[in-house]
Specification:
The chain is an all-alpha fold. It is built from twelve helices and no strands. The protein has helices at about 1-15, 15-50, 50-55, 65-75, 80-95, 100-105, 110-140, 150-180, 180-205, 215-245, 250-265, 275-295. The longest helix is centred in the middle third of the chain and has 34 residues, at about 110-140. The two termini are about 25 Å apart.
């Protein structure tokens, strides 16, 4: 197993794909975080000057609104590790280079297990690179009073790194199932950029703000970061309000707040953090497991 894992790492590192995907992932993540942080800062500053906000002493300028930009940027940039994973096995199946690997390795399941381990590690690497990029973007685009504290920052980025790792394995499974790099990329891009976001928005609107979109792959993945951001913001606002002598917010208002923040982060109708993680883990296991099972039976001649 160790030699097969080394061979899989060598395959990746001797090609240009890993850095050809990583560079745009870094730039897109940083750009979205920069723009999102600047926008949320501008909106917060404008609202803080409104009479109604000042009248009720709402400390809007003390809230870490940039966590929304962090979450949204992580969600957008996760497309790249997903595509990287999709090409992991699909390109070898298309070019028939997987035949040599299967014939020289001790067992076919061993090769597939090694690929899973290697691409999980690469998904983690992509997640860390994207996390660094969104951090730089948020630092450059946000006022210091709107930046999250260390705990908030860590939790949002942790959720994003786990999401990127799962997207990589999700893509690997889809690519393994389809067996065509072009087909896998087209299907995943159409889903991630069109069907997923627009379909979830329509479903969310048609069901009067239900959580149904949170049970879909894209919705549950985005919900991991979006729900983390909404929970952190709510707890911070609640603490600030209580310090000013205010009252606890009711459960109904909290739900409204959570849904609004999750929607802004690109996850309308998302479930809580843990439920989103479990749902997306289940989707990843389904596609990854199906793809691996398909390739234990696939003809490689």
């Amino acid at each position: 197993m160790g030699n097969v894992i080394k061979a899989e790492f060598r395959k990746i590192l001797t090609t240009k794909l890993w850095w050809a995907m990583m560079i745009p992932a870094f730039l897109v993540a940083g750009g979205w975080a920069l723009g999102g942080a600047a926008l949320t800062t501008e909106i917060a500053n404008d609202l803080s000057r409104e009479d109604v906000i000042q009248q009720f002493d709402i400390p809007i300028n003390e809230v870490s609104w940039s966590v929304i930009a962090l979450a949204r940027a992580m969600n957008i940039a996760s497309i790249f590790p997903m595509l990287f994973g999709a090409l992991g096995l699909a390109s070898e199946l298309h070019r028939r280079t997987i035949t040599t690997t299967f014939l020289t390795a001790s067992t076919r399941p061993g090769v597939l297990a090694a690929k899973a381990i290697v691409y999980a590690v690469w998904g983690l690497i992509y997640g860390l690179v994207i996390a660094v990029a969104v951090s730089f973007g948020a630092l450059l685009g946000s006022d210091s009073n709107h930046l999250p504290d260390g705990k908030q920052w860590f939790l949002v980025l942790l959720a994003g790194v786990i999401m990127c790792t799962l997207w990589t394995l999700f893509g690997l499974g889809v690519g393994a199932l389809i067996g065509s790099p072009v087909g896998a990329i087209v299907i995943l891009l159409i889903y991630a950029l069109v069907i997923g976001p627009f379909g979830e928005f329509v479903l969310f609107s048609a069901t009067d703000g239900s959580n149904l979109p949170g049970f879909l792959p894209n919705g549950s993945a985005n919900g991991m970061t979006g729900s983390t951001a909404s929970a952190l913001l709510f707890d911070q606002i609640q603490s600030l309000v209580l310090n000013l002598g205010g009252e606890l917010v009711t459960d109904d208002r909290r739900e409204t707040f959570d849904q609004a923040i999750r929607a802004v982060a690109g996850a309308p109708g998302a479930l809580s953090l843990w439920l989103s993680t479990l749902v997306f883990l289940a989707w990843t296991a389904l596609f990854f497991g199906t793809g691996m099972w398909r390739n234990q039976k696939r003809d490689i001649t």
